[in-house]
Amino acid sequence: MNKPTHPYAIELRGISKRFGAVQANKDINLQVPAGTVHGIIGENGAGKSTLMSIIYGFYEADSGTIEIDGQEVKIRNSQDAIKAGIGMVHQHFMLVENFTVLENVILGAEGGTILKGGMDAARKELARLEQEFSLDIDVDAVVEDLPVGLQQRVEILKALYRGARILILDEPTGVLTPQEADHLFRILDALKKQGVTVILITHKLREILASTDNVSVMRLGQMVAHRETAKTEKEELAELMVGKKVRLKVLKEEAEPAEVKLAAKNISYVDSQGVTRLKNINLELRAGEIVGIAGVSGNGQSELLNVLSGITPMSSGEVHMAGQVITPKAPKNAAQMRDLKMGHIPEDRHKMGLVTGFEAYEAAVLGYHNDPAYNGKIFLNRKAMLDECNERMQDWDVRPPNPHLKTANFSGGNQQKIVIAREVEKNPDVLLVGQPTRGVDIGAIENIHEQIIKLRVADKAILLVSVELDEIMALSDRILVMFDGEIVGELPASEADERTLGLMMANAFNEEGASA
Ligand SMILES: Nc1ncnc2c1ncn2[C@@H]1O[C@H](COP(=O)(O)OP(=O)(O)OP(=O)(O)O)[C@@H](O)[C@H]1O
């Protein structure tokens, strides 16, 4: 890798971007020293993604300049960004699942390594990069067979193959196990040693403190602070982001679980391809307890939430709830489960929680539109819906508090607040919660966690699925671990730690336990 030729790999001056009434970026200045890891933090809607989209050419700034290695560049699209040596690893991977790693990496790559040297040259270059940065990838593996952590490394390889010297990672650890996240940070370290500059967007201050050299803080579209990481701490960063002191710990009393509110007995689910996704799941949720489900994404957690919430019919087994026995022969759909007082915060807010073309006040009653509160004589009572939406936006600090804004145009965290508020405010007896704080900032996490604890205090039964082990450990009273469609272990939260859970999630506990 070439030695940096300028102290700043990238420098932004006076970048502004407006979307209608929203000033998403305002006069942003940023200097990222070459060969460093630079964190960008900020609340939901602070403008981080907009800024990165400008650097990567998805949006053009209204004003301001971008310099790479001291040279001003015009970035009108992602091809320009790639030419300027910028690579981006998105939250949602952009890989062709049934292609191999090699095919994915060379797909669409410009410059014609393939043309000049054929596949062999491409393979050689990949092997070099793969080794240089300890990526640990088999370039002939088919992407769909790879766990998420490896798919992410394929994205990194793809960017490096295209000559990236500045790599932007947007919330990279959201879907990783702790072990995969550790590996990612080792890779970032290797990148840095080779002179690559990394920009890391994350809501996790622990990651910022552990892996960055400098950190910049955004609030309400502006860059409000820059800090050398070694000279700051979690509390200061949280306060800079939110503009006030933030409690970083969940406060809760000892649980006093009461009667069983939901019991799943021997549930199995075989999908339309004939693949068994859930195997003999047995679990009970009691009033006044939070049961956490830990697991690497894709091990049946989503299917479990879908089956329990009535979205997907189970293949065998029974669910007992509110005096009803639900079986494959006597199923209940999602609306009927809602009538039994089940709330569901789905994992994927885009696909299942919202209709992104709807305005916020419409999305705020999705699934509850038959509620008499919103029912006019012929049409829905728009005023009642708007009033309620306005009130909830205040209570849940949704930004901007505009019930007419299309849900697609809220930042990820604010979309999440709209969904959670809708489900929690209906006061369910049983609440299924999937990834409640994915992509949500520290202030909003505090609020969401408080609400979930309040429901527990009010004797609700809560099933929490999250890839965030901190969250599972902080909120749950009991933790179940899922692997390959089965519950492979259970621990009281008081006995759980990250390493133990991480190993159980990889179903490696016994082997490592034996060798430790
Ligand atoms: N295409 C768009 N049209 C209208 N408004 C937008 C658009 N994209 C972003 N915004 C608004 O710009 C502001 C900044 O959003 P942005 O996504 O950059 O924030 P963020 O800091 O990345 O948030 P998060 O952490 O939730 O991802 C928000 O108020 C958002 O609603």
Automatic annotation (TrEMBL):
Q: Which UniProt keywords apply?
A: ATP-binding, Cell membrane, Hydrolase, Membrane, Nucleotide-binding, Repeat, Sugar transport, Translocase, Transport
What SUPFAM superfamilies has UniProt attached to this entry? P-loop containing nucleoside triphosphate hydrolases (SSF52540)
Q: What InterPro entries does the database record attribute to this sequence?
A: AAA+_ATPase, ABC_carbohydrate_import_ATPase, ABC_transporter-like_ATP-bd, ABC_transporter-like_CS, P-loop_NTPase
| A cellular component term, taken from the record's GO annotations | plasma membrane
This entry's Gene Ontology molecular function terms read:
ATP binding; ATP hydrolysis activity
Q: Where is the ABC transporter domain?
A: 10-245, 262-509
Q: How does it sit in the membrane?
A: Peripheral membrane protein
Q: Which protein are we looking at?
A: Monosaccharide-transporting ATPase
Organism annotation = Marinomonas mediterranea (strain ATCC 700492 / JCM 21426 / NBRC 103028 / MMB-1)
